[in-house]
Amino acid sequence: MSFALEYRKKHLLAPKKSEVPPPKAEATPKRRARKAPAKRVVAERREDTTANRATVLGALLLAAAILAVFNSEGLRLVAGDIAEREAGRPVLVVSEAWDDAMDRIGAKALMASVRQVVEEAREASWADVAIFAGGGARQGDRRTIAADVARGDITGSLPHRARHAIEVRD
Amino acid sequence: MLFPTLSFGIFFLGVFAAAWELRKWPEARKAFLVGVSYIFYACWDWRFTVLLAASSLINYTAGRLLAVTESESGRRQLVAIAVVLNLGILAVFKYFGFFMESLSELLTHVGLARDLPFLEILLPIGISFFTFHGISYVVDVYRGKIPAEESPLDVCLYISFFPQLVAGPIIRAADFLPQLKTEPKLDRVMVANGIVLILLGLFKKMVIANYLANELVDGVFFDPSAYSGPDLLLALYGYAVQIYCDFSGYTDIAIGVALLLGYHFKPNFMQPYRAASLREFWQRWHISLSSWLRDYLYKPLGGNRHGTALTYRNLLITMLLGGLWHGAALTFIVWGAIHGTALVIERMILAFKPAPAQVLQLAGYGPVGRVLAFGTMGGQAFGKAFSVFVTFNIVCLAWIFFRSESMAYAFDYLRGLTDWSGPVERATPFLVALIFVSLAAHFVSEDLVERVSAKLHDSGALTLGAVLGFGILFIWAMAPEGVAPFIYFQF
After folding, report:
1. Which end of chain A is least crowded, N or C, by CB within 10 Å?
2. Is A53 in Cβ contact with B468 (below 8 Å)?
3. Is residue A77 part of a domain?
4. Taking the CA atoms of chain B, what radius of gyration do you get in angstroms?
5. Searching chain A, which residue's CA lies closest to the CA of residue B465?
6. How far is Cα B409 from Cα B263, in angstroms, rounded to an integer?
7. How far is B157 from chain A (nearest CA, A)?
8. Quick one: pLDDT band at residue A169, thresholds 50, 70, 90?
9. Do residue A103 and residue A135 come from a single domain?
10. Alpha helices by DSSP H, A105-160
């Protein structure tokens, strides 16, 4: 073949199909595995009985642990009932030890403080409510309040603000 | 085994874990739930488990016989026998003593005093509830609402299922039995609603109901003559709140526990003290009982289909028997009579009251008509508030008899309410606030519980556990000492 024909074949003519390399894939991003839309995932998770059962069981156990730590006295009382039978005595020993341990680390303080708040609310009188609603005493009101205390019209049974409010000074 | 106790908590933890483990084996799951329900019942008195089993057997057998009996008269006879047997059990255990006492008093009164046989019969806990469950099953099979169950296990579970066994709600066979045919599911809505309902029920019972009982109601009702009118009124309102919180608290816990086990119960209370009429009150209070009485007593008597006089008669009979269902005492019958009479009077008044559409027509008659219509509609808003107030006080009047030990105590209470000269001893800020806030809660949005529980739909075990654990902790911390039984255990 002459140089011209060869040149033409090599550079000018369309290549044969057998010589054409397979076309490259178009420049699109790699195809990721199809993901379900977020809403459907949430909905499926909500309906999944097995998963929900595990969640509830975990929640119940956590709740039991919270109660065991912060309400160890309740465990002790229940153990006291069980200890009426001989077989239940070791349970009482363990629960007492646990209760003492929780007391030492201060875990019982939470329930004690809630009980105290409720107790104070229970024992409050209408005079306490009046003082509390009045926002405590201003400086100039101390003599009036002192007079009220002396008459017995104010019990001052509420601590904190009420006690401060009715502090008597000569 | 009371709901708000550690022993029930441990019991439920075990039941929950095992029941869901058996999800793929429905018969085994049902058998397990029947077994634990009988254990739950045996904690009160194991002897009455025999009675429970007998009741289940009677109703199951009646259902099977109905399925194979074709003649209408035969079917009617079967239903009648089953109902008589159920009510007979109830009559013997609940009403025998009352009947003998009343007979003895009557004979003495007419000069025919006799030594009548005296039997001290223990009242099995929950007997009124599981008796009504049995009747519901047999009648629903007779009416064709549900097919007769082939498996005795299903009937046993329906009658003995522990969340509703001892104090309701009264579940219909047509609502519960179909749920046993499908594989139980537990979705996040059920989990969240269950936890919120359990916490709400515990708070209502352990904090509100118990404080009101211990610090106000029990003392005042024990000796009403020792207190002045204002204290008696406060204690009466306190009792209205106490019985609502006690009973609805129990059913909230029952519904929540059932949800966590995969079963749906219908609501039993819907803010009853916001009712503007007695009729509305009974659509909101102890809904399972009022609807049971409507479907199995009021309607079979004729309902409102045979004229005004018979409607009134049927209403009175239904409410009298509803009162008697609560207890074998004249005070309960009077309680029912007050409600029945009030319902009748209400119907009479409503027969003469113009409907809103008729009022609006006035506006078409010129400016005077428009003023009248506007005034009437505006007045209706005030009228509604007044109706709520009146309805609440009629209900409270009936509660006096419901709570009092005897008619004499009830009349003492009524007399004392008219005397406002004595000192006010019981009205502390704590109790007044407790009553006021509890009554005010009846006027919040009806879907508040659903909206609160919606916040927990996507929460994990950590959040749910913290909510449940700290929720129960704070409730126990706030509650008075001791665990009082639920009021409706005595019915």
Report:
1. C
2. no
3. yes
4. 24
5. A59
6. 43
7. 22
8. very low
9. no
10. 109-123, 126-133, 142-151
Nearest residue of chain B to residue A113 (CA atoms)? B477
Tell me how far apart the alpha carbons of residues B356 and A93 are, in angstroms, rounded to a whole number: 71
Tokens 């025999």, located at residue:
B50
Same domain membership, residue A84 and residue A57: yes
Q: What is the pLDDT of residues B156-190, one digit of tens each?
A: 999 999 998 887 799 999 999 999 999 899 999 99
ipTM passes above 0.90: no
Q: Judge if A72 and A100 occupy the same domain.
A: yes
A55: left (phi over 0), alpha (psi -120 to 50) or beta: alpha
A20 vs B223: which has the higher pLDDT = B223
Instruction: Give the domain range for residue A78.
Output: 52-108
**Subunit contact A59:B16, Cβ cutoff 8 A:** no
> Is A49's CB within 8 Å of B460's CB?
no
Residue B324 CB contacts under 8 Å (≥ 6 apart), including other chains? B95, B332, B333, B336
Residue position matching structure tokens 């077994």: B35
Chain B residues contacting A via beta carbons under 8 Å:
6-7, 9, 12-13, 16-17, 20, 23, 184-191, 195, 211, 215, 260, 428-430, 457-458, 460-462, 464-466, 468-470, 472-474, 476-478
Residue B73 is encoded by which pair of tokens? Answer: 């008269």
Residue A133 within any structural domain of the chain: yes
Please give the average per-residue pLDDT across A15-24, as a whole number. 53
Domain boundary among A84, A108, A132: A108
DSSP secondary structure string, B17-83? HHHHHTTT-HHHHHHHHHHHHHHHHHTT-TTHHHHHHHHHHHHHHHHHHHHH---HHHHHHHHHHHH
Burial of B452 by CB count in 10 Å (0-12 exposed, 13-18 middle, 19+ buried)? middle
Q: Work out the burial of residue B244: count CB atoms within 10 Å of its CB; fewer than 13 is exposed, 13-18 middle, 19 or more buried.
A: buried
| Cβ neighbours around A19 below 10 Å, total | 7
Number of domains in chain A: 2
How far is A129 from chain B, CA to nearest CA, in Å? Answer: 8
- Cβ B13–A64 below 8 Å, yes or no? yes
Q: What percent of chain B has pLDDT over 70?
A: 87
pTM higher than 0.90: no
**pLDDT at A32 (0 to 100):** 58
The C-alpha atoms of residue A168 and residue A164 are separated, in whole angstroms, by: 9
For residue B130, give both structure tokens.
């599981």
Is the link from the previous residue into A90 a cis peptide, with omega within 30 of 0? Answer: no
Closest CA to B81 of B59, B99, B53, B48: B59
- Residue B241 DSSP label: H
The stretch A7-28 carries a mean pLDDT of 55
Check whether A161 has a pLDDT greater than 50. no
The residues of B annotated as belonging to the active site are 326
B473 to each of A17, B213, B219, B321, how far by Cα in Å?
81, 21, 28, 41
Q: Give the nearest chain A residue to B184 (CA atoms).
A: A49
Rounded to an integer, what distance in angstroms lies between the CA atom of residue B224 and that of residue B243? 18
Flag whether A160 is in a domain. yes
CA distance B254 to B265: 9
User: Which residues, including other chains, have CB under 8 Å from residue B67's CB and lie 6 or more apart?
Assistant: B141, B147, B148
